[in-house]
Amino acid sequence: MAKGYWIAHVKVRDPERYKDYVAANAIAFKKYNARFVVRGGRNEARGNPISGDRHVVLEFESYDVARACYDSPEYKAAAAIRDEASDASVIIIEGYDG
User: Fold this and answer.
1) pTM to 2 decimals?
2) Residues sharing a CB contact under 8 Å with residue 38, sequence separation 6 or more, in sequence order
3) DSSP letters for 46-74
4) Fewest C-beta atoms under 10 Å: which of 42, 43, 61, 78?
5) Tens of pLDDT along 75-98?
6) Among residues 49, 65, 46, 54, which one has the least CA distance to residue 3?
7) Which domain CATH number covers 36?
């Protein structure tokens, strides 16, 4: 079964409030066994620029688990904080299981 992923591009507007989001999202990520593949780090955009200065890739057991985490009450509470502190776009995508 193919894994599921979140690919997030984030523009942090309030770094202090964003720390609250990071603490809150840990609850959902632990519950759904998310694993960070990319969490910030050095980056450069090639070709068309991508919105955001922080990029994150999370891995989940499956696409359905990735969706369930995003739709969970735990993550919805974290996302409310995220939206106060940043502009973010998240793509939920099924991995390749060639």
Assistant:
1) 0.92
2) 55, 56, 57
3) -SSPPS-SEEEEEEESSHHHHHHHHHSHH
4) 42
5) 999 999 999 999 999 999 999 988
6) 65
7) 3.30.70.100
